[in-house]
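Chain X:
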Amino acid sequence: MAEICVLYERECIDCGECDMCDLEPGKHCDDCGRCIDDSEEYRSVTVEDFIRQHVTDKQLKKMEKKLLDRQAEQELKQKENKSDK
């Protein structure tokens, strides 16, 4: 199956346009990152910010309970493995 072009709705024809610099036409992208600093589209958020904005207290408590249950299971398995030796 052919690759899909990331710029246009067509199959990739290996034109190389997607590898060109957004800030300096004609220059091959060297991953300098300057375009990222200039664009809102590429900005990121921290995991903590995402959780604060998108995870409810109920979901957080449910995840915490699952984590504690898994830790208890692992501790139990470790104890069983030690007693088997």
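Chain Y:
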Amino acid sequence: MKTILVSILSVLFSGILLNCSSVNSNISHPDQDAQLHREWMLVAYGNYSKADMMSKGARINLTEKTENGKIRGTAFMGCNSMFFTSEFKNDGNVKISEIGSTLKACQDMKLEMDFGKELRNMKTYAVKGHSLIFTDDQGHTMEFIAADWD
């Protein structure tokens, strides 16, 4: 009887340990993920006013689960839905790739066109408080604020 009880408890305990380790293996960098996995509103970019960006609902969404160190993101700049793959490194570098969008024609698409062209050039990122800042090699920036904070 003791042997059966010990065997059952061993199997249950092993199952618990395996479940814990498999959950943790899906998280690449918990602190980084917690900072980045948000929806971000665009508040400073080029010569565009904050009011113009807010009226268009300009934002990116990085809430998808990190897979193989990458986050599938989406963006909206007032007309089309955009999508991209982002890879955030611990050293502050970022790689934005696989950018695409829907193909609706809208009256004012300048912000969307500029954003789509420049997003792929962003090389570094920084999270400062509730802000996410992308910077390219020429010092051009895109600044976002966490949507759940403002």
